[in-house]
Amino acid sequence: MASPALRADLGRIVGDEHVLDPVPRELLQDATESRGLTGRALAAVRPADAEQVAAVVRWAARTGTALVPRGGGTGFSGGAVPGAAPDDPDAVVLATDRLTRGASIRPEDWSATFPAGTVTADLQRRCLEAGLFFAPNPGSAESSLIGGNVATNAGGPRSFKHGPVRAWVSGVEAVLGDGERVRLGGAHQFPMLRVRRWPA
Ligand SMILES: Cc1cc2nc3c(=O)[nH]c(=O)nc-3n(C[C@H](O)[C@H](O)[C@H](O)COP(=O)(O)OP(=O)(O)OC[C@H]3O[C@@H](n4cnc5c(N)ncnc54)[C@H](O)[C@@H]3O)c2cc1C
Question: Measured between alpha carbons, how far is 153 from 46 in angstroms, rounded to an integer?
């Protein structure tokens, strides 16, 4: 349960309706739920864009509050489960499902940029529609998000031939622990993803 001050701080950043307290049970679990793992959290926040993510991270750094990023919650290792261990600190869940604005697909240079909250299967479909191919195909693609795929370097059957997500990412925009936004790698356009013409 969050304090009124914490709720107010986060509400000023993301809007009160996007601060979830109490935290819905589904945001306290991932695929390890089948093994009985459920966490605990002070609150969950659902930022709408990178600037709000950076502001939440700056707030967490200033207040010394733990943050647990969350994609689609399909991970099998409890990474998205806040407070999974009894001695874990109380945390705020940073849900990335609203980070869906600003995708761009550039068939002419075989690249695309997708925000972290894009569902993996939607990304694959949109690339195919543009005549491009994104190989990693985790079995969870209809539920996992590309941000979670990048964080876990997800694979899938096609990755035996074409490599996991790491092999397909040429650059990222990221928020560091102090809230600084950085762009790493990539060409002049900082493409998030390398895609290939399809069919080859
Ligand atoms: C049915 C099923 C099939 C699967 N098949 C495969 C498979 O074929 N190959 C494979 O590799 N995996 C597979 N997985 C595992 C899982 O789907 C992958 O690990 C996937 O990449 C997790 O993505 P997610 O969005 O659900 O991340 P989550 O489970 O929400 O998070 C995973 C980790 O990434 C962190 N994270 C999430 N988003 C971000 C972000 N934007 N920034 C920073 N950190 C972040 C979380 O804190 C957590 O530590 C499968 C899972 C299921 C349930």
Answer: 23
Report pTM: 0.94
- Please tell me whether residues 139 and 182 are part of one structural domain: yes
**Count of structural domains within the chain:** 2
Q: Residue 54 sits in a domain of what CATH number?
A: 3.30.43.10
**pLDDT (tens digit, 9 = 90+) per residue, 111-124?**
999 999 999 999 99
The two three-digit tokens of residue 169, written as one number: 């990412």
Which tens digits make up the pLDDT trace of 154-188? 999 999 999 999 999 999 999 999 999 999 887 54
Q: Give the distance (Å) from ligand 1 centre to CA of residue 180.
A: 24
Q: Give the residues surrounding ligand 1 with Cβ less than 6 Å away.
A: 30-31, 68-76, 79-80, 96, 116, 138-140, 144-145, 147-149, 151-152, 154-156
Which of 30, 46, 140 maximizes ligand 1 atoms within 8 Å of its Cβ, making it the mutation to test the pocket? 140
- The residues that bridge with 43 in the sheet, in sequence order, are 92
132 Cβ contact partners less than 8 Å away, ≥ 6 residues apart: 105, 107, 110, 112, 195, 196, 197, 198
Q: Are residues 61 and 79 in the same domain?
A: yes
CA 148–ligand 1 middle distance (angstroms): 5
CA of 160 to the centre of ligand 1 (A): 18
- Give the Cβ contact number of residue 172 at 10 Å: 18
